[in-house]
């Protein structure tokens, strides 16, 4: 539940911040008449995200065993790609996000009401679709989808409350530190999803080595114990992983963490010749 809560909180807060910027811009610009268009775009984006998640679940349930494993493996790999791109994009663009959104909304206001709806829809739909794909990929690793569903729902609700508090200036948090720490945790979650995707490919017969275990710690980490379930649910640590699973997990986690923790280079603005003179 914690990992799915983290997914809902991180993705939900990004979408909430986007909506807060759009709403604040319209309110300060005395264009409250366009707020219904923003909420309409947000509503359509949320409905599309829920429908996308339902489509993934329905499709997986209709497939045969081998095809289902292959479908879940592809969804897991896509989720890892999207969440990795999202983490690094947010790390790079967080500071300029507000100004960029305001500029796009200004252009949309000049075009018309439909453009405002599309603008709000596109701003939220990306986060919603990523959440649905990431949640689906993660939920395949658990025996019941109820706990992840509760977790992601609580995460989204928390994100909405935090976003509302920020908008109302009731609370202030360091968003740079927030996205850094949640990014680190999501990288670990993504590594676990990749490991599970490799396992699905082995189950489908696409990759070999399903029975070639890297280690066996079943005695120290029983899968039916509370701590075994906790580690499996949060970090996808299983007592009998294959060599290929462990190799894929380490090959993703180590370099991704190094790149994420590497200090960003500050952009330098060239000095004009007249100023230098």
How does this model look, in words?
The chain is mainly α and about 280 residues long. The protein has one domain (about 1-260). About 75% of the residues lie in helices and about 0% in strands. The chain is built from ten helices and no strands. The longest helix is centred in the first third of the chain and has 29 residues, at about 65-95. The protein starts with a helix and ends with a helix. One of its GO terms (cellular component) is high-affinity iron permease complex.
Helix-strand blueprint:
Elements: H1 2-28, H2 35-62, H3 65-93, H4 97-111, H5 113-139, H6 146-167, H7 175-203, H8 226-235, H9 243-261, H10 273-276
Helix pairs in contact: 1-4, 1-5, 1-6, 1-7, 2-3, 2-5, 3-5, 3-7, 4-5, 7-9
Key terms:
277 residues; elongated
| Radius of gyration over all CA atoms, rounded | 21 Å
Order of helices and strands: HHHHHHHHHH
Largest sheet, described in full? none
Oligomer category:
single chain
User: What value does the average pLDDT take?
Assistant: 77
How many helical elements? 10
| DSSP E strands, number | 0
Family: Belongs to the oxidase-dependent Fe transporter (OFeT) (TC 9.A.10.1) family.
Membrane topology: Multi-pass membrane protein
GO molecular function: ferrous iron transmembrane transporter activity
InterPro entries: FTR1/Fip1/EfeU
């Amino acid at each position: 539940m914690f990992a799915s809560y983290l997914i809902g909180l991180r993705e939900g807060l990004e979408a909430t911040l986007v909506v807060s910027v759009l709403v604040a811009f319209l309110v300060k610009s005395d264009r409250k008449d366009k707020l219904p268009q923003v909420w309409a775009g947000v509503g359509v984006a949320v409905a599309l995200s829920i429908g996308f998640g339902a489509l993934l679940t329905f499709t997986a349930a209709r497939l045969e065993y081998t095809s289902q494993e292959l479908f879940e493996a592809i969804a897991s790999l896509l989720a890892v790609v999207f969440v990795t791109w999202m983490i690094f994009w947010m790390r790079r663009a967080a500071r300029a996000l507000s100004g960029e959104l305001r500029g796009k909304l200004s252009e949309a206001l000049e075009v018309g009401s439909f453009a405002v709806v599309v603008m709000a829809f596109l701003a939220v739909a990306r986060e919603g679709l990523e959440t649905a794909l990431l949640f689906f990929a993660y939920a395949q690793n658990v025996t019941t989808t109820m706990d992840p569903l509760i977790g992601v729902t609580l995460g989204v609700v928390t994100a909405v409350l935090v976003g509302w508090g920020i908008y109302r200036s009731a609370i202030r948090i360091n968003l740079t530190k927030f996205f850094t720490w949640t990014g680190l945790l999501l990288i670990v979650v993504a590594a676990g999803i990749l490991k599970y995707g490799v396992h699905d490919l082995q189950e489908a017969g696409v990759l070999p080595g399903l029975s070639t275990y890297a280690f066996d710690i079943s005695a120290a980490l029983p899968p039916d114990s509370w701590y075994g379930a906790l580690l499996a649910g949060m970090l996808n640590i299983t007592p009998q992983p294959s060599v290929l699973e462990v190799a894929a997990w380490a090959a993703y986690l180590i370099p991704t963490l190094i790149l994420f923790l590497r200090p960003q280079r500050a952009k330098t603005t060239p000095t004009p010749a007249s100023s230098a003179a």
